[in-house]
Design a protein that fits this description.
Largest sheet: 7 strands, mixed
Number of helices: 14
CATH topology of the largest domain: FAD/NAD(P)-binding domain
CATH class of the largest domain: Alpha Beta
Radius of gyration: 27 Å
Shape: globular
CATH architecture of the largest domain: 3-Layer(bba) Sandwich
CATH superfamily of the largest domain: FAD/NAD(P)-binding domain
Length: 582
């Protein structure tokens, strides 16, 4: 069926656009991503790309026409295809009524038609069997139930997955302790005179509190599943090609299977790595005796966060990172600033170096680095990332991308009706990305492949003190891809709330293209960065330009004023920045 080309809505205020020029003519072959036409809104000219491949069958509105947003201006389809005007609009209305995202029309080979009427389910048969109760899994199960499906979920340990049990939630509990200790250090300067500044860390109580937080949340997930009438199976699910799942002696069957098995700690094969004094990020969260020294192998998000926790407790922490800077996926300027701040907090950071051997002697470790240095520590933390968890999936002959399950935009694997959202596909190993992939997989399993998972504007954060967060691409990547870009900055050093809170350090950086002021990336190091980045992600998902964002008003005094001023600085309009040199 021919696909409509519509006048796009490029901003919240845009009501209509003028067609400047069609770059393709009727009968021309069009590839996805080709420039179809140029339009003018009330703000700027914009080239519109084809979202589908085919032949430009018909141009409905010509150059010079002013067209309301969402009105049809042309059609793309197969050569010689007859246009049934209005047909796709009806389909769109049906999707909206169902509460689903309106997808672009997929290529014939990319997505099968919606699933046909179903025969009644057998007692041990389900619309969807979900394997794994982490973020992708429990979201998929609940979304499937909301859509009227009979859903089962199989979990071998605790619900909530890595994030809730041994990842983001426990580490944030410990990082709050680090923040409290930072507060004690500055109390006297704020006029709060404590009877004593001496303190001790009770690791038993610390671990117990962390466990209570985890238990509350895992119990909450299980309660939500039960409330949505999801059938729960405890044990390792062995998945078979015929879509049966064996849990011990019991076997169930799914018309669709969602593989949400998550990830496990990645390991390296070097001499001495199996020492009991070498802990994983899972192990260290249950450590009840504080070491005097800790060597952290890996300066990524988890290594830096946990390193800061132990450094705040007074442990001598050394971070060893093979890249030229910590958290190398972050913007270089932000990474460099964070490294300076953490060094001032007492953390030792060694970059561009790796560990070649670990020697255990006299209840301590000697880490031999590949530059000839040696580091002695009571304990070591192995924190070099995570890899997909494939236990229970051995019988499936799935197409893989290295050690990750290969999925398409609908989260479907190479086996029809088997989906693999979350960490197991290695696309974006973040809990909130897994949430989205899980719900998309469930909707596609229930309705046929109707929705794609758009992860382009997924925010990421590091919960150090100060926090670090980003969405979009870095300045380095933007310059490589676009060449001509604009960069705006504003510092927390002049922000009223930051100064009043003893948190006047860090900055916000905004990157945009030079022509249309499209926002390419936002990078923050400073207070509440992990909260503010969500606003930036929403702005980018909504395709607001810098100019449109500056029409908004941010409250005062707030940390988020710094982000607003960084947007203004892109255009040289930041009030609280010195004038830019001409």
């Amino acid at each position: 069926m021919a696909v409509e080309i519509i006048m796009p809505k490029l901003g919240v205020d845009m009501q209509e656009g003028e067609i400047i020029e069609w770059k393709k003519q009727e009968g021309d072959t069009v590839k996805e991503g080709d420039i179809l036409l140029e339009i003018n809104s009330d703000k700027t000219n914009m080239e519109i790309e084809a979202e589908d491949a085919g032949v430009l069958l018909k141009i409905v509105r010509q150059a010079g026409d002013v067209v309301p947003v969402t009105e049809v201006i042309g059609y793309i389809g197969a050569e010689g295809e007859e246009i049934q005007e209005g047909s796709s609009s009806a389909a769109t209305a049906d999707l909206v009524a169902a509460g689903l995202e309106v997808p672009k029309a997929p290529a014939q080979s990319d997505a099968p038609a919606a699933k046909a009427d179903k025969a009644p389910l057998a007692d041990n048969e389900y619309d969807i069997v979900v394997i794994g109760g982490g973020p992708a899994g429990y979201y998929a199960a609940i979304r499937g139930a909301q859509l009227g499906g009979k859903i089962a979920i199989v979990e071998k340990t605790e619900f909530g997955g890595t994030c809730l049990n041994v990842g983001c939630i426990p580490t944030k509990t410990y990082l709050k302790n680090a923040e409290i200790l930072d507060g004690l250090k500055i109390a006297a300067g704020r006029g709060i005179n404590l009877a004593s500044t001496n303190y001790t860390i009770d690791m038993d109580k610390t671990v117990e509190f962390k466990n209570s937080v985890v238990k509350t949340l895992t119990g909450g997930v299980k309660g939500l599943l039960k409330a949505n009438k999801v059938t729960i199976f405890n044990g390792l699910g062995q998945v078979n090609p015929d879509k049966t799942v064996s849990i011990g002696s019991e076997t169930i069957k799914g018309r669709n299977i969602i593989l949400a098995t998550g990830s496990k700690v990645s390991r390296i094969n070097i001499p001495g790595i199996d020492s009991k004094l070498v802990l994983t990020s899972d192990d260290i969260l249950d450590l009840r005796e504080m070491p005097k020294s800790l060597a952290v192998m890996g300066g990524g998000v988890v290594g830096i966060e946990l390193g800061l926790v132990w450094a705040s407790y007074g442990v001598d922490v050394t971070v060893i990172e093979m890249a030229d800077r910590i958290i190398p996926a972050m913007d270089k300027e932000v990474s460099t600033e964070l490294q300076k701040i953490l060094t001032k907090k007492g953390m030792k950071i060694k970059t561009s170096v790796g560990v070649s051997e670990i020697v255990e002697a006299n209840n301590q470790l000697t880490l031999k680095l590949n530059n000839g240095e040696e580091i002695v520590a009571e304990k070591a933390l192995l924190s070099i990332g995570r890899v997909p968890q494939m236990n229970g999936l051995e019988n499936l002959n799935l197409e893989m991308d290295r050690n990750r399950i290969k999925v398409n935009a609908y989260q479907e694997t190479s086996i029809p009706s088997i989906y693999a959202p979350g960490d197991v596909n290695g696309t974006k190993m973040l809990a909130h990305a897994a949430y989205r992939m899980g719900e998309v997989a469930a909707e596609n399993a229930m309705h046929g492949n109707v929705r794609k998972a758009n992860l382009e504007f997924t925010p990421a954060a590091v919960y150090t003190h100060p926090e670090v967060a980003m969405v979009g691409i870095t300045e380095e990547d933007a310059r490589a891809k676009y060449g001509d870009i604009l960069v705006g900055r504003n510092s927390f050093t002049g922000n009223g709330r930051a100064i009043a809170s003893n948190e006047a350090h860090g900055f916000v950086k905004v990157i945009s293209d030079a022509k249309f002021h499209e926002i390419l990336g936002v990078h923050i190091i400073g207070p509440a960065a992990a909260e503010m980045i969500n606003e930036a992600a929403t702005i980018m998902e909504s395709e607001l330009t810098v100019d449109e964002l500056l029409l908004s008003i941010h409250g005062h005094p707030t940390f988020s004023e710094v982000m607003y001023e960084a947007f203004a600085d892109v255009l040289g309009e930041a009030i609280h920045n010195p004038p830019k040199r001409k």
